[in-house]
């Protein structure tokens, strides 16, 4: 079986759907039409560009070219992971912690995946390594971003509660413990939902893709199980690292809560 | 800049009690004073004069220069959480990390005894924090702090939400802990309370002490 290919008509249909959403935003005064248009154009351009670049990179089997593409993906993730929090750390720390946590979580699970389950030859083969990293990177980035967002937006509100613990002799780890755990839990909710819904409510992306590309559904489901496990592990690592590092940055060695480390 | 007279030198600190040395941040200080064990220093001054800033620096809750010693041991020489366990700061608006009072203190004999002294009905232990009155919360925070048997208490307007009779009960509790050797720094707007409680008095204006010791 060959994959079903899409033609120009299908692309126009996709564009029409976006225009419909924009119209709805205008009618309902949602105020998101501008963002929506920018996002749609950006998405289309990014994906077409990516398709072309991947076509090129897959064509030549160069480890350096693969690494270059990966480096670009990690840089973009570092920027995106820190872009949507309302409360923020000062820029270097904000993007530093977000990028470091995302990269660490992703790299660990990508290596686990490439060196054990998938084992392409060679292991850095672009056709496997790049899509796999992209998939995991996007997920870990989401979890990290949510984790940071929860912690940063709650810490100012919970200031009195955190200091109440500090005043009574708690260490900074003890005082911020519940906030850290709540941030990690919040960050993992979408992943947990995704896992619970997998196969019952939704057909997960990888499995759908593999089936559309002609793979036997049972084999596709095994693929999805491995990838889902990698995703949840990467998310856990990214969310945990970013929550711990962010809370460490918002306190100091003398166990003080340092909200002055938030960007004004 | 007017400072209190006879500012002690760093190095000679009280063997028993609180000694503040060259304590300052960008907005307030430098401060240098002693509060002997069992004594109460009352600090008065207008809103924004830096009273809470001073107490927070003493509890090492805000970055600062200078140091504070308790019974001859400097804050900088011990871990911050051990310092705060002995030098307990009670802010004007106490914080609560959950809505259940029992998450903040166990229902034991010590809690019951302190609550009775503070004139709190036993039922508050089972009430959600958000339903308690400001005065009840203030006194519960005092109970929570006193359970640690602190060597020094830094109290920011502890009776601001209390009626006259209850204020006297809280003052009696303060005298109890002073009799046990605890040093108290009390920030108060209540002139009568200052007269009743003060062994020492200082007035703060624009981040500095004004006038002489009394």
TrEMBL record, chain A:
Pfam families: UPF0014 (PF03649). InterPro entries: UPF0014_fam. It is a multi-pass membrane protein. The chain crosses the membrane at residues 12-32, 39-58, 64-83, 95-118, 130-152, 195-213, 225-248. Keywords: Membrane, Transmembrane, Transmembrane helix. Belongs to the UPF0014 family. PANTHER family: PROTEIN ALUMINUM SENSITIVE 3, UPF0014 INNER MEMBRANE PROTEIN YBBM-RELATED. This is Iron export ABC transporter permease subunit FetB. It comes from Gluconacetobacter asukensis.
